From TrEMBL:
<protein>
    <submittedName>
        <fullName>DNA ligase-associated DEXH box helicase</fullName>
    </submittedName>
</protein>
<dbReference type="InterPro" id="IPR036866">
    <property type="entry name" value="RibonucZ/Hydroxyglut_hydro"/>
</dbReference>
<keyword id="KW-0436">Ligase</keyword>
<dbReference type="InterPro" id="IPR026360">
    <property type="entry name" value="Xnuc_lig_assoc"/>
</dbReference>
<dbReference type="GO" id="GO:0004521">
    <property type="term" value="F:RNA endonuclease activity"/>
</dbReference>
<dbReference type="GO" id="GO:0016874">
    <property type="term" value="F:ligase activity"/>
</dbReference>
<dbReference type="InterPro" id="IPR050698">
    <property type="entry name" value="MBL"/>
</dbReference>
Amino acid sequence: MPPPHPDTWIRVTPQGLYCEPGDFFIDPMAGAPRAIISHGHSDHARPDHGAVLATPETLAIMTARLGEGRAGRSQQALAYHAPITVGGVRVTLVPAGHVLGSAQVVLEWQGSRIVVSGDYKRQPDPTCAPFEPVPCDVFVTEATFALPVFRHPPAAQEVRRLLESVALFPERAHLVGCYALGKCQRLIALLREAGWDRPIYLHGAQQSMCALYERFGIPMGELRPVPRPEKRGATVLAGELVLAPPSAEANPWARRLADPVTAVASGWMRVRQRAKARGVELPLIVSDHVDWDDLLASIAEVGAPEVWVTHGREEALIHALAGRGVRGRALHLLGREEEESGEAALDLASAAVGAEDAA
């Protein structure tokens, strides 16, 4: 008897992907009785589950962002490559290369294998374990940047552009918008690799995740909070680097900086109109998601005859896959926010908690 097709035991529900024989959800849209969480970003790691399973890093991130006990009433940490069996389903977490602790969820049942990749990238990142392709029958993938126009340059190249701008405008601060989880720490690591050994200044919303990364052995170097000017109307940090939430440049907090060059680190900065509309002076194309080429290469590597697309540019990807003899299916999951808006909202909420720094 041939193995069962994954769509006979993995269902799309209003809560998201549900594994019937294991009786658990993967990245459910709201609190669920049993959940496996791929990574700590807010559109995947929702609060108030009954039982939650994730990597130790993801559980720590969820606790830091949601509060003690909000991730789930019971929590099970599962290391990479340490399979367990849940209701007859073999579950293994494999690195996704997205952020610290991010995982692909590998599910095997009665000879059938499905890989739910979560969010992932293929570019080098010194702050998290790299993506590992896993051969499977069905590959569930994001499609955030699934258009041929999205081809991300090497992140190190974009960091060099940033440092060249700092050298060119020593009288100005450089304010770099980046998500508090993942992007901020990756930029810091890339800046250190590029030779920036001076302090890096952080908006209050960025500080807790940097401290968490350091607790997990990811060195950040010297980080400092943005100081207040000594005199009313004065400015600070000329020639320095400041990392903050992407919308911080519109906050009165930014007025303390010396004539800041506004930059944003995002894959969306490939779209010039988007950067221009936001008034971004220095767009940096640095993404924690796969671009078009890496997306197609990853699908080819796993060799799945069928690909399910969870969110993003489903139509373009499914059309491209059809030309390669791969069946594509758009899952149309509800509640999968564009990460940019979801994470920016959480960053602003975190900033409000640290109001004394954001004032």
